[in-house]
Protein backbone atom coordinates (compact mmCIF):
# COMPACT_ATOMS: atom_id res chain seq x y z
CA UNK A 1 0.00 0.00 0.00
CA UNK A 2 2.38 2.70 -1.09
CA UNK A 3 1.57 5.93 -2.84
CA UNK A 4 2.12 5.64 -6.55
CA UNK A 5 4.65 8.33 -7.48
CA UNK A 6 3.89 8.02 -11.19
CA UNK A 7 0.39 9.42 -10.72
CA UNK A 8 -0.40 11.71 -13.69
CA UNK A 9 -1.33 15.31 -12.80
CA UNK A 10 -5.06 15.96 -12.47
CA UNK A 11 -5.28 18.47 -15.24
CA UNK A 12 -9.05 18.78 -15.02
CA UNK A 13 -8.80 20.70 -11.77
CA UNK A 14 -6.17 23.27 -12.68
CA UNK A 15 -8.36 25.77 -14.47
CA UNK A 16 -9.48 25.27 -18.08
CA UNK A 17 -8.62 21.83 -19.46
CA UNK A 18 -5.53 21.70 -21.70
CA UNK A 19 -5.81 20.14 -25.18
CA UNK A 20 -6.10 16.37 -24.82
CA UNK A 21 -2.75 14.55 -25.10
CA UNK A 22 -2.51 11.97 -27.90
CA UNK A 23 -1.83 9.18 -25.38
CA UNK A 24 -2.62 7.79 -22.90
CA UNK A 25 -6.38 8.45 -23.09
CA UNK A 26 -7.81 10.64 -20.36
CA UNK A 27 -10.07 9.27 -17.70
CA UNK A 28 -13.09 10.87 -19.36
CA UNK A 29 -12.26 9.24 -22.68
CA UNK A 30 -11.78 5.88 -21.00
CA UNK A 31 -15.09 6.23 -19.19
CA UNK A 32 -16.86 7.30 -22.39
CA UNK A 33 -15.32 4.35 -24.23
CA UNK A 34 -16.39 1.99 -21.47
CA UNK A 35 -19.93 3.35 -21.62
CA UNK A 36 -20.12 3.12 -25.39
CA UNK A 37 -18.66 -0.38 -25.61
CA UNK A 38 -20.68 -3.55 -25.09
CA UNK A 39 -21.22 -4.79 -21.55
CA UNK A 40 -18.40 -7.13 -20.63
CA UNK A 41 -19.10 -10.84 -20.62
CA UNK A 42 -18.61 -12.88 -17.44
CA UNK A 43 -14.97 -13.38 -16.65
CA UNK A 44 -15.13 -15.62 -13.59
CA UNK A 45 -16.71 -19.01 -14.25
CA UNK A 46 -18.43 -20.24 -11.12
CA UNK A 47 -20.63 -23.10 -12.31
CA UNK A 48 -20.45 -26.12 -10.02
CA UNK A 49 -19.77 -28.68 -12.75
CA UNK A 50 -20.03 -31.73 -10.51
CA UNK A 51 -23.73 -31.07 -9.94
CA UNK A 52 -24.84 -30.53 -13.52
CA UNK A 53 -27.29 -33.44 -13.62
CA UNK A 54 -29.36 -31.92 -10.80
CA UNK A 55 -28.53 -34.71 -8.38
CA UNK A 56 -26.47 -33.82 -5.35
CA UNK A 57 -25.45 -37.16 -3.91
CA UNK A 58 -24.03 -37.77 -0.48
CA UNK A 59 -20.35 -38.55 -1.06
CA UNK A 60 -20.57 -41.42 1.43
CA UNK A 61 -23.80 -43.29 0.69
CA UNK A 62 -25.10 -41.74 -2.54
CA UNK A 63 -28.45 -40.61 -1.14
CA UNK A 64 -29.92 -37.36 -2.51
CA UNK A 65 -31.63 -36.55 0.79
CA UNK A 66 -29.29 -33.68 1.50
CA UNK A 67 -29.95 -30.45 3.35
CA UNK A 68 -28.26 -27.74 5.36
CA UNK A 69 -27.63 -28.27 9.02
CA UNK A 70 -27.76 -24.70 10.31
CA UNK A 71 -25.94 -25.35 13.58
CA UNK A 72 -22.79 -26.38 11.70
CA UNK A 73 -23.36 -24.58 8.40
CA UNK A 74 -22.61 -27.89 6.65
CA UNK A 75 -24.58 -30.09 4.31
CA UNK A 76 -25.90 -33.19 6.02
CA UNK A 77 -27.07 -36.44 4.49
CA UNK A 78 -30.40 -37.29 6.10
CA UNK A 79 -29.81 -40.97 5.38
CA UNK A 80 -26.35 -41.62 6.86
CA UNK A 81 -25.79 -38.29 8.75
CA UNK A 82 -22.54 -37.65 6.90
CA UNK A 83 -21.63 -33.91 6.89
CA UNK A 84 -19.60 -31.97 4.36
CA UNK A 85 -19.46 -28.58 2.69
CA UNK A 86 -18.68 -26.85 -0.57
CA UNK A 87 -15.49 -24.87 -0.88
CA UNK A 88 -15.36 -21.19 0.05
CA UNK A 89 -15.54 -19.02 -3.06
CA UNK A 90 -13.10 -16.56 -1.52
CA UNK A 91 -10.21 -18.98 -2.15
CA UNK A 92 -11.83 -20.97 -4.95
CA UNK A 93 -12.30 -18.01 -7.25
CA UNK A 94 -9.48 -15.88 -5.84
CA UNK A 95 -11.86 -13.17 -4.66
CA UNK A 96 -9.67 -12.06 -1.80
CA UNK A 97 -6.84 -10.78 -3.96
CA UNK A 98 -6.00 -8.26 -6.58
CA UNK A 99 -8.63 -5.65 -5.86
CA UNK A 100 -6.13 -2.92 -6.70
CA UNK A 101 -5.29 -4.56 -10.02
CA UNK A 102 -8.90 -4.90 -11.21
CA UNK A 103 -9.52 -3.30 -14.57
CA UNK A 104 -12.91 -2.44 -15.95
CA UNK A 105 -15.92 -4.47 -14.89
CA UNK A 106 -15.26 -8.09 -13.96
CA UNK A 107 -18.44 -10.12 -13.65
CA UNK A 108 -18.74 -13.66 -12.29
CA UNK A 109 -20.97 -15.96 -14.32
CA UNK A 110 -23.72 -16.01 -11.69
CA UNK A 111 -23.92 -12.21 -11.81
CA UNK A 112 -24.37 -12.07 -15.58
CA UNK A 113 -27.29 -10.18 -17.08
CA UNK A 114 -30.71 -11.62 -16.43
CA UNK A 115 -32.66 -12.68 -19.48
CA UNK A 116 -36.36 -12.08 -19.25
CA UNK A 117 -37.07 -14.49 -22.10
CA UNK A 118 -35.69 -17.45 -20.18
CA UNK A 119 -38.40 -19.34 -18.33
CA UNK A 120 -38.38 -19.71 -14.57
CA UNK A 121 -39.27 -23.38 -14.88
CA UNK A 122 -36.42 -25.83 -15.25
CA UNK A 123 -37.19 -29.45 -16.11
CA UNK A 124 -34.94 -32.34 -15.13
CA UNK A 125 -34.89 -35.96 -16.11
CA UNK A 126 -34.63 -37.74 -12.78
CA UNK A 127 -31.39 -39.71 -12.60
CA UNK A 128 -33.06 -42.26 -10.36
CA UNK A 129 -36.10 -43.34 -12.39
CA UNK A 130 -36.11 -41.25 -15.56
CA UNK A 131 -39.27 -39.25 -14.74
CA UNK A 132 -39.50 -35.55 -15.61
CA UNK A 133 -39.39 -33.18 -12.64
CA UNK A 134 -39.98 -29.42 -12.84
CA UNK A 135 -38.60 -26.73 -10.55
CA UNK A 136 -39.93 -23.17 -10.52
CA UNK A 137 -36.74 -21.18 -10.04
CA UNK A 138 -38.54 -17.97 -9.14
CA UNK A 139 -39.09 -19.34 -5.63
CA UNK A 140 -37.47 -22.77 -5.22
CA UNK A 141 -34.27 -24.47 -6.24
CA UNK A 142 -35.19 -28.05 -5.33
CA UNK A 143 -37.92 -30.55 -6.04
CA UNK A 144 -38.64 -34.13 -5.14
CA UNK A 145 -39.24 -36.74 -7.78
CA UNK A 146 -42.81 -37.94 -7.19
CA UNK A 147 -41.90 -41.48 -8.14
CA UNK A 148 -38.61 -42.34 -6.51
CA UNK A 149 -38.22 -39.53 -3.91
CA UNK A 150 -34.87 -38.39 -5.29
CA UNK A 151 -34.18 -34.69 -4.64
CA UNK A 152 -33.31 -32.71 -7.77
CA UNK A 153 -31.43 -29.42 -7.42
CA UNK A 154 -31.05 -26.50 -9.79
CA UNK A 155 -27.30 -26.32 -9.77
CA UNK A 156 -26.62 -25.29 -13.32
CA UNK A 157 -26.56 -21.57 -13.92
CA UNK A 158 -29.44 -20.55 -16.13
CA UNK A 159 -29.49 -17.08 -17.67
CA UNK A 160 -32.66 -16.06 -15.83
CA UNK A 161 -30.73 -14.75 -12.86
CA UNK A 162 -31.94 -17.40 -10.45
CA UNK A 163 -28.65 -19.14 -9.75
CA UNK A 164 -25.96 -17.03 -8.10
CA UNK A 165 -22.25 -17.71 -7.87
CA UNK A 166 -22.22 -18.47 -4.20
CA UNK A 167 -24.37 -19.04 -1.16
CA UNK A 168 -23.77 -18.15 2.45
CA UNK A 169 -25.46 -20.89 4.48
CA UNK A 170 -27.88 -20.21 7.32
CA UNK A 171 -26.19 -20.37 10.71
CA UNK A 172 -28.81 -19.15 13.19
CA UNK A 173 -31.52 -21.72 13.73
CA UNK A 174 -35.20 -20.85 13.49
CA UNK A 175 -35.56 -21.02 17.29
CA UNK A 176 -32.71 -18.56 17.76
CA UNK A 177 -34.31 -16.23 15.22
CA UNK A 178 -37.71 -16.48 16.95
CA UNK A 179 -36.09 -15.60 20.28
CA UNK A 180 -34.48 -12.49 18.78
CA UNK A 181 -37.67 -11.37 17.07
CA UNK A 182 -39.67 -11.91 20.26
CA UNK A 183 -37.11 -9.89 22.20
CA UNK A 184 -37.10 -7.07 19.64
CA UNK A 185 -40.89 -6.76 19.58
CA UNK A 186 -41.14 -7.29 23.33
CA UNK A 187 -39.14 -4.13 23.97
CA UNK A 188 -41.61 -2.22 21.79
CA UNK A 189 -44.95 -3.23 23.23
CA UNK A 190 -46.16 -0.16 25.07
CA UNK A 191 -46.81 2.03 22.04
CA UNK A 192 -47.35 -0.75 19.51
CA UNK A 193 -50.55 -0.98 17.54
CA UNK A 194 -53.05 -3.11 19.46
CA UNK A 195 -53.75 -5.28 16.45
CA UNK A 196 -50.05 -5.99 15.95
CA UNK A 197 -49.76 -7.21 19.53
CA UNK A 198 -52.79 -9.48 19.12
CA UNK A 199 -51.62 -10.92 15.82
CA UNK A 200 -47.90 -11.19 16.63
CA UNK A 201 -46.84 -14.80 16.02
CA UNK A 202 -43.03 -14.89 15.69
CA UNK A 203 -43.19 -18.61 14.86
CA UNK A 204 -44.31 -17.48 11.40
CA UNK A 205 -40.75 -16.36 10.70
CA UNK A 206 -39.49 -17.43 7.27
CA UNK A 207 -35.94 -18.34 6.32
CA UNK A 208 -35.22 -16.59 3.03
CA UNK A 209 -32.12 -16.44 0.88
CA UNK A 210 -32.08 -12.93 -0.55
CA UNK A 211 -30.10 -12.11 -3.70
CA UNK A 212 -27.19 -9.72 -3.32
CA UNK A 213 -24.32 -8.53 -5.44
CA UNK A 214 -21.02 -8.45 -3.61
CA UNK A 215 -18.55 -5.99 -5.06
CA UNK A 216 -14.81 -5.43 -4.81
CA UNK A 217 -13.57 -2.19 -6.31
CA UNK A 218 -10.81 0.36 -6.34
CA UNK A 219 -11.51 4.00 -6.95
CA UNK A 220 -10.30 7.53 -6.54
CA UNK A 221 -12.57 10.36 -5.55
CA UNK A 222 -12.12 14.09 -5.22
CA UNK A 223 -14.01 16.72 -3.26
CA UNK A 224 -13.98 20.52 -3.48
CA UNK A 225 -15.65 23.01 -1.21
CA UNK A 226 -15.29 25.77 1.34
CA UNK A 227 -14.01 25.54 4.90
CA UNK A 228 -13.87 28.10 7.69
CA UNK A 229 -11.41 28.50 10.55
CA UNK A 230 -12.36 30.64 13.53
CA UNK A 231 -9.76 33.34 14.22
CA UNK A 232 -11.47 35.31 16.99
CA UNK A 233 -14.46 35.16 19.29
CA UNK A 234 -15.69 38.01 21.48
CA UNK A 235 -18.83 39.26 23.19
CA UNK A 236 -20.38 42.69 23.05
CA UNK A 237 -22.92 44.16 25.40
CA UNK A 238 -26.15 45.12 23.62
CA UNK A 239 -28.68 46.48 26.07
CA UNK A 240 -29.22 43.78 28.66
CA UNK A 241 -27.77 40.97 26.53
CA UNK A 242 -24.30 39.73 25.73
CA UNK A 243 -23.93 38.96 22.03
CA UNK A 244 -21.15 36.68 20.80
CA UNK A 245 -19.34 37.56 17.58
CA UNK A 246 -16.88 35.57 15.50
CA UNK A 247 -14.16 36.28 12.97
CA UNK A 248 -13.04 33.57 10.54
CA UNK A 249 -10.71 32.75 7.66
CA UNK A 250 -12.38 31.24 4.61
CA UNK A 251 -10.55 28.56 2.63
CA UNK A 252 -11.08 26.85 -0.68
CA UNK A 253 -10.60 23.18 0.27
CA UNK A 254 -9.71 20.27 -1.97
CA UNK A 255 -9.21 16.61 -1.07
CA UNK A 256 -8.44 13.44 -3.02
CA UNK A 257 -8.29 9.88 -1.82
CA UNK A 258 -7.65 6.47 -3.37
CA UNK A 259 -9.16 3.41 -1.82
CA UNK A 260 -10.24 -0.18 -2.26
CA UNK A 261 -13.46 -1.67 -0.97
CA UNK A 262 -13.78 -5.37 -0.25
CA UNK A 263 -17.23 -7.03 -0.34
CA UNK A 264 -19.48 -4.02 -0.60
CA UNK A 265 -22.93 -5.62 -0.58
CA UNK A 266 -26.01 -4.45 -2.49
CA UNK A 267 -29.53 -5.77 -2.87
CA UNK A 268 -29.97 -7.67 -6.13
CA UNK A 269 -33.74 -7.45 -6.12
CA UNK A 270 -35.31 -4.20 -7.27
CA UNK A 271 -38.07 -4.57 -4.69
CA UNK A 272 -35.62 -4.81 -1.80
CA UNK A 273 -33.26 -2.20 -3.17
CA UNK A 274 -36.03 0.36 -3.30
CA UNK A 275 -35.63 2.04 0.07
CA UNK A 276 -38.41 4.59 0.27
CA UNK A 277 -40.85 6.07 2.74
CA UNK A 278 -43.63 3.87 1.34
CA UNK A 279 -41.99 0.67 2.59
CA UNK A 280 -39.73 -0.63 5.35
CA UNK A 281 -37.00 -2.08 3.14
CA UNK A 282 -34.42 -0.09 5.09
CA UNK A 283 -34.91 -2.69 7.83
CA UNK A 284 -33.58 -5.48 5.63
CA UNK A 285 -30.74 -3.25 4.47
CA UNK A 286 -29.78 -2.42 8.05
CA UNK A 287 -28.88 -6.01 8.97
CA UNK A 288 -25.94 -5.89 6.55
CA UNK A 289 -23.05 -6.70 6.55
CA UNK A 290 -22.73 -10.46 6.31
CA UNK A 291 -19.53 -12.48 6.70
CA UNK A 292 -19.47 -12.88 2.92
CA UNK A 293 -15.91 -14.26 3.08
CA UNK A 294 -17.46 -17.53 4.26
CA UNK A 295 -19.76 -17.92 1.24
CA UNK A 296 -19.41 -21.28 -0.50
CA UNK A 297 -19.82 -22.51 -4.05
CA UNK A 298 -23.39 -22.72 -5.24
CA UNK A 299 -25.14 -25.94 -4.30
CA UNK A 300 -28.93 -25.90 -4.18
CA UNK A 301 -28.95 -28.39 -1.31
CA UNK A 302 -28.12 -25.45 0.97
CA UNK A 303 -31.58 -24.13 0.13
CA UNK A 304 -33.66 -27.13 1.12
CA UNK A 305 -36.28 -25.95 3.60
CA UNK A 306 -35.79 -22.25 2.88
CA UNK A 307 -37.40 -19.77 0.54
CA UNK A 308 -35.40 -17.83 -1.98
CA UNK A 309 -35.91 -14.70 -3.98
CA UNK A 310 -34.73 -14.19 -7.51
CA UNK A 311 -32.30 -11.48 -8.51
CA UNK A 312 -33.70 -8.99 -11.02
CA UNK A 313 -31.08 -6.23 -11.07
CA UNK A 314 -28.15 -6.34 -13.47
CA UNK A 315 -24.65 -5.03 -12.88
CA UNK A 316 -25.21 -2.09 -15.24
CA UNK A 317 -28.24 -1.00 -13.25
CA UNK A 318 -26.29 -1.03 -10.01
CA UNK A 319 -23.24 0.86 -11.26
CA UNK A 320 -24.68 4.31 -10.41
CA UNK A 321 -25.39 3.05 -6.90
CA UNK A 322 -21.81 1.78 -6.63
CA UNK A 323 -20.48 5.21 -7.63
CA UNK A 324 -22.79 6.83 -5.12
CA UNK A 325 -21.62 4.58 -2.29
CA UNK A 326 -17.97 5.02 -3.28
CA UNK A 327 -18.42 8.81 -3.14
CA UNK A 328 -19.86 8.46 0.35
CA UNK A 329 -17.00 6.19 1.40
CA UNK A 330 -14.46 8.70 0.06
CA UNK A 331 -16.18 11.55 1.90
CA UNK A 332 -15.99 9.58 5.11
CA UNK A 333 -12.29 8.83 4.45
CA UNK A 334 -11.34 12.50 4.00
CA UNK A 335 -13.40 13.76 6.93
CA UNK A 336 -10.51 13.07 9.32
CA UNK A 337 -8.34 15.58 7.43
CA UNK A 338 -10.70 18.50 8.12
CA UNK A 339 -10.08 19.09 11.84
CA UNK A 340 -8.43 22.44 11.15
CA UNK A 341 -11.76 23.79 9.91
CA UNK A 342 -13.42 24.22 13.26
CA UNK A 343 -16.35 26.15 11.76
CA UNK A 344 -17.02 23.30 9.34
CA UNK A 345 -16.65 22.43 5.67
CA UNK A 346 -19.28 22.67 2.95
CA UNK A 347 -18.50 20.31 0.04
CA UNK A 348 -19.80 21.72 -3.24
CA UNK A 349 -18.32 19.48 -5.93
CA UNK A 350 -17.21 15.86 -6.09
CA UNK A 351 -15.96 13.36 -8.60
CA UNK A 352 -15.37 9.63 -8.75
CA UNK A 353 -13.24 7.43 -10.99
CA UNK A 354 -13.78 3.70 -10.57
CA UNK A 355 -10.59 2.01 -11.72
CA UNK A 356 -12.06 -1.48 -11.62
CA UNK A 357 -14.78 -3.54 -10.03
CA UNK A 358 -15.58 -7.22 -9.56
CA UNK A 359 -19.18 -8.42 -9.14
CA UNK A 360 -20.24 -11.70 -7.60
CA UNK A 361 -23.86 -12.78 -7.07
CA UNK A 362 -24.62 -14.35 -3.70
CA UNK A 363 -27.56 -15.67 -1.78
CA UNK A 364 -27.42 -14.37 1.78
CA UNK A 365 -29.53 -15.83 4.60
CA UNK A 366 -32.20 -13.79 6.41
CA UNK A 367 -34.92 -14.74 8.87
CA UNK A 368 -37.92 -12.54 8.13
CA UNK A 369 -40.98 -11.84 10.19
CA UNK A 370 -43.43 -9.69 8.30
CA UNK A 371 -46.62 -7.99 9.34
CA UNK A 372 -48.96 -6.08 7.09
CA UNK A 373 -50.59 -3.10 8.75
CA UNK A 374 -54.22 -3.08 7.65
CA UNK A 375 -54.92 0.63 8.04
CA UNK A 376 -52.28 1.72 5.50
CA UNK A 377 -51.11 -1.47 3.81
CA UNK A 378 -47.54 -0.94 5.01
CA UNK A 379 -45.52 -4.15 5.27
CA UNK A 380 -43.44 -4.12 8.44
CA UNK A 381 -40.45 -6.42 8.82
CA UNK A 382 -38.42 -7.71 11.68
CA UNK A 383 -35.30 -9.12 10.04
CA UNK A 384 -32.55 -11.24 11.55
CA UNK A 385 -29.18 -11.65 9.88
CA UNK A 386 -28.92 -15.45 9.96
CA UNK A 387 -25.11 -15.26 10.27
CA UNK A 388 -24.44 -12.47 12.76
CA UNK A 389 -27.80 -12.42 14.55
CA UNK A 390 -28.13 -8.69 14.03
CA UNK A 391 -31.80 -7.87 14.36
CA UNK A 392 -33.69 -4.82 13.15
CA UNK A 393 -37.35 -4.18 12.70
CA UNK A 394 -40.25 -1.89 12.22
CA UNK A 395 -43.13 -2.15 14.68
CA UNK A 396 -46.38 -0.35 13.82
CA UNK A 397 -47.05 2.43 16.28
CA UNK A 398 -50.36 3.39 17.84
CA UNK A 399 -50.47 7.14 17.21
CA UNK A 400 -53.13 7.89 19.85
CA UNK A 401 -51.02 6.20 22.55
CA UNK A 402 -47.89 7.96 21.37
CA UNK A 403 -49.65 11.32 21.24
CA UNK A 404 -50.95 10.85 24.76
CA UNK A 405 -47.45 10.04 26.05
CA UNK A 406 -45.95 13.06 24.29
CA UNK A 407 -48.61 15.41 25.63
CA UNK A 408 -48.04 14.01 29.12
CA UNK A 409 -44.27 14.54 28.92
CA UNK A 410 -44.84 18.01 27.44
CA UNK A 411 -47.26 18.96 30.19
CA UNK A 412 -44.93 17.79 32.96
CA UNK A 413 -42.00 19.71 31.45
CA UNK A 414 -44.16 22.82 30.99
CA UNK A 415 -45.18 22.56 34.64
CA UNK A 416 -41.54 22.42 35.75
CA UNK A 417 -40.69 25.34 33.43
CA UNK A 418 -43.55 27.45 34.82
CA UNK A 419 -42.49 26.68 38.37
CA UNK A 420 -38.90 27.72 37.58
CA UNK A 421 -40.14 30.96 36.00
CA UNK A 422 -42.25 31.79 39.03
CA UNK A 423 -39.33 31.03 41.32
CA UNK A 424 -36.91 33.24 39.36
CA UNK A 425 -39.38 36.17 39.07
CA UNK B 1 -45.59 -2.48 31.80
CA UNK B 2 -42.19 -4.11 31.56
CA UNK B 3 -41.46 -2.23 28.35
CA UNK B 4 -42.31 1.14 29.90
CA UNK B 5 -39.35 0.67 32.22
CA UNK B 6 -37.20 -0.20 29.21
CA UNK B 7 -38.43 2.49 26.84
CA UNK B 8 -38.68 5.60 28.99
CA UNK B 9 -35.11 5.71 30.35
CA UNK B 10 -33.88 5.41 26.77
CA UNK B 11 -36.13 8.26 25.68
CA UNK B 12 -35.15 10.46 28.62
CA UNK B 13 -31.44 9.81 28.04
CA UNK B 14 -31.79 11.08 24.48
CA UNK B 15 -34.01 13.93 25.59
CA UNK B 16 -31.60 15.32 28.18
CA UNK B 17 -29.19 17.05 25.76
CA UNK B 18 -32.15 18.70 24.05
CA UNK B 19 -33.39 20.21 27.27
CA UNK B 20 -30.15 21.19 29.01
CA UNK B 21 -29.65 24.40 26.96
CA UNK B 22 -32.97 25.69 28.23
CA UNK B 23 -31.78 25.55 31.81
CA UNK B 24 -28.64 27.50 30.90
CA UNK B 25 -30.32 30.18 28.80
CA UNK B 26 -30.23 33.72 30.21
CA UNK B 27 -33.76 34.68 29.29
CA UNK B 28 -36.11 32.54 31.37
CA UNK B 29 -39.09 33.05 29.04
CA UNK B 30 -37.42 30.49 26.77
CA UNK B 31 -38.25 27.94 29.43
CA UNK B 32 -41.84 27.95 28.21
CA UNK B 33 -40.68 26.17 25.04
CA UNK B 34 -39.73 23.16 27.18
CA UNK B 35 -43.29 21.77 27.06
CA UNK B 36 -43.91 21.74 23.29
CA UNK B 37 -40.30 20.84 22.53
CA UNK B 38 -40.14 18.05 25.07
CA UNK B 39 -43.47 16.70 23.88
CA UNK B 40 -42.38 16.81 20.25
CA UNK B 41 -39.06 15.18 21.02
CA UNK B 42 -40.79 12.42 22.98
CA UNK B 43 -43.05 11.69 20.05
CA UNK B 44 -40.20 11.63 17.58
CA UNK B 45 -37.84 9.52 19.72
CA UNK B 46 -40.40 6.86 20.54
CA UNK B 47 -41.59 6.73 16.95
CA UNK B 48 -38.00 6.24 15.79
CA UNK B 49 -37.38 3.56 18.40
CA UNK B 50 -40.36 1.60 17.08
CA UNK B 51 -40.12 2.17 13.35
CA UNK B 52 -36.37 2.69 12.83
CA UNK B 53 -37.03 4.70 9.69
CA UNK B 54 -33.65 6.40 10.04
CA UNK B 55 -31.58 3.18 10.03
CA UNK B 56 -29.61 1.74 7.15
CA UNK B 57 -26.44 -0.27 6.55
CA UNK B 58 -23.43 1.89 7.39
CA UNK B 59 -21.29 0.75 4.49
CA UNK B 60 -18.86 3.64 5.04
CA UNK B 61 -17.89 2.08 8.35
CA UNK B 62 -18.85 -1.60 8.12
CA UNK B 63 -17.21 -2.53 4.82
CA UNK B 64 -13.56 -3.51 4.50
CA UNK B 65 -12.00 -0.33 3.18
CA UNK B 66 -8.34 0.36 2.69
CA UNK B 67 -7.44 3.91 1.79
CA UNK B 68 -4.18 5.54 0.80
CA UNK B 69 -3.21 8.77 2.58
CA UNK B 70 -5.58 11.64 1.83
CA UNK B 71 -4.13 14.23 -0.58
CA UNK B 72 -5.17 17.80 -1.20
CA UNK B 73 -4.74 21.35 -0.08
CA UNK B 74 -6.43 24.56 0.94
CA UNK B 75 -6.10 28.21 -0.10
CA UNK B 76 -7.20 31.14 2.01
CA UNK B 77 -9.63 33.12 -0.14
CA UNK B 78 -11.52 35.38 2.24
CA UNK B 79 -11.86 36.67 5.78
CA UNK B 80 -15.06 37.18 7.75
CA UNK B 81 -14.33 39.92 10.27
CA UNK B 82 -17.59 39.98 12.17
CA UNK B 83 -20.47 37.50 12.21
CA UNK B 84 -22.95 36.09 14.70
CA UNK B 85 -22.95 32.72 12.89
CA UNK B 86 -20.96 30.29 14.97
CA UNK B 87 -20.38 27.90 12.08
CA UNK B 88 -20.29 27.70 8.29
CA UNK B 89 -23.55 27.59 6.33
CA UNK B 90 -24.44 24.21 4.86
CA UNK B 91 -21.79 22.17 6.69
CA UNK B 92 -22.01 18.72 5.06
CA UNK B 93 -18.59 17.38 6.04
CA UNK B 94 -20.16 14.62 8.10
CA UNK B 95 -23.16 13.98 5.86
CA UNK B 96 -21.36 11.59 3.59
CA UNK B 97 -24.44 10.56 1.66
CA UNK B 98 -25.63 14.05 0.79
CA UNK B 99 -24.59 14.28 -2.85
CA UNK B 100 -23.24 17.54 -4.27
CA UNK B 101 -22.52 18.56 -7.84
CA UNK B 102 -20.62 15.89 -9.80
CA UNK B 103 -17.74 17.38 -11.74
CA UNK B 104 -17.41 14.30 -13.95
ZN1 LIG C 1 -25.21 -40.31 3.11
ZN1 LIG D 1 -37.24 -40.29 -9.84
Brief summary:
The complex is a heterodimer of chains A (425) and B (104). Chain A is of the alpha+beta class. Chain A has helices spanning 27-36, 89-92, 174-186, 194-199, 270-273, 281-286, 315-334, 399-424; strands at 66-69, 74-77, 83-84, 104-107, 121-125, 132-136, 142-144, 151-153, 166-167, 206-238, 241-267, 296-297, 307-308, 345-372, 379-385, 391-393.
Report on the architecture of this protein.
- In chain A, strands 4, 9, 10, 11, 12, 13, 14, 15 and 16 form a nine-stranded mixed sheet that branches. A three-stranded antiparallel sheet of chain A has the order 1-2-3, with no helix packed on it. In chain A, strands 5-6 form a two-stranded antiparallel sheet.
- Chain A is flat.
- Chain A is 21% helix and 32% strand.
- Chain A has eight helices and 16 strands.
- Chain A is α+β, with helices and mostly antiparallel strands and 425 residues long.
- With 104 residues, chain B is α+β, with helices and mostly antiparallel strands.
- Helices cover 43% and strands 18% of the residues of chain B.
- Chain B has three helices and three strands, in the order H-H-H-E-E-E.
- At the A-B interface, helix 1, strand 10, strand 11, helix 6 and helix 7 of A face helix 1, helix 2, helix 3, strand 1 and strand 2 of B.
- Bound molecules: zinc ion (2 copies).
- One zinc ion (ZN) binds next to loops of chain A.
Fill in the keyword field for this structure.
heterodimer; A: 425 residues; alpha+beta; nine-stranded mixed β-sheet; three-stranded antiparallel β-sheet; 8 helices; 16 strands; 21% helix; disordered N terminus; B: 104 residues; flat; binds zinc ion
Amino acid sequence: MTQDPAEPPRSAYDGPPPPPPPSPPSLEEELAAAKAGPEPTPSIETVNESLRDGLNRCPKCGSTDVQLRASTGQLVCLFCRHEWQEERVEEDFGLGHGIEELEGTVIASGAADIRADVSDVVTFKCGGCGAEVSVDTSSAMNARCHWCRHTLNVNEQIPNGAVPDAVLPFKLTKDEAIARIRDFAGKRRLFALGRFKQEFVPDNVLGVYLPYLVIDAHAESEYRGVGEVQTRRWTEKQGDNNVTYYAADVYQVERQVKYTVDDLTMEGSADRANIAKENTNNIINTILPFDTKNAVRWNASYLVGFNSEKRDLNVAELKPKLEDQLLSIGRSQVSGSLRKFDRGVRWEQESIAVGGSRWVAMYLPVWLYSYQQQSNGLLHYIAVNARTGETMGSVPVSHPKLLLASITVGTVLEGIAAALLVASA
Amino acid sequence: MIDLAQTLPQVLAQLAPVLVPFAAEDSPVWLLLAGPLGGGATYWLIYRYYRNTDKSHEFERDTLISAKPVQGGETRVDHISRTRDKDIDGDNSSRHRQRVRRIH
